[in-house]
Amino acid sequence: MKLVRLALLAAFTVGLAACQYARTPDPVLSERDAQFMAMIPTAKEDPMFARYMVDNPTGEPPGVVVVETRQHQLYYTLPDGKAMRYGVALGSEAFGWTGEAVIDHKAEWPDWNPPADMVARWPQVKKTAGGWTNPLGARAMYLFQDGKDTLYRIHGTNEPEKIGQSVSSGCIRMRNIDVIDLYSRVQDGTKVIVR
């Protein structure tokens, strides 16, 4: 039994050594970004949900966003078999969404217009102008299917402590510094797969 445990431990250690993780520097912030970001609460970052460049585990070609809902990870695939990995907060079970879409357009510090079904559930939510108090955070990428708005977004958050949890009404939330990084990498028309 002891030999089996040692063999399993050795296999696990070799498996971890084969994984290539590299922390990446934060993106350079504009003056506006820096001002707003200074006002947003911070949360202790869980290394499991930190931004890393990793070996691409998705099987997708470069230039695709893949969200692995079970792991609360978003990958943006890069050339040479690499990917950027970001921790995310996702929809609670009742509001989870999977499928394929494209990024139709992007916005910096966007206004938030809560959908009618959200207002029906929570009458206290109101339209909010873009800025540091806005639930969409620093950036938003609007997901469309067949030319129609899905009402789902990849966006920042003013609740960074919830990264790694299933708490949203379906959107894919990222730490603001991470959504700024992803925003700078993707283009309109980028394919998004949510598994």
Automatic annotation (TrEMBL):
Domain L,D-TPase catalytic: where? 63-195
Task: Return the protein name.
Answer: L,D-transpeptidase
The pathway it acts in is:
Cell wall biogenesis; peptidoglycan biosynthesis
Name the protein family.
Belongs to the YkuD family.
Q: Which CDD domains match?
A: YkuD_like
Q: Write out the catalytic residues in the record.
A: 155 (proton donor/acceptor), 171 (nucleophile)
Keywords assigned: Cell shape, Cell wall biogenesis/degradation, Glycosyltransferase, Hydrolase, Peptidoglycan synthesis, Signal, Transferase
- What start and end residues bound the annotated signal peptide? 1-17
Q: Does the keyword Protease apply?
A: no
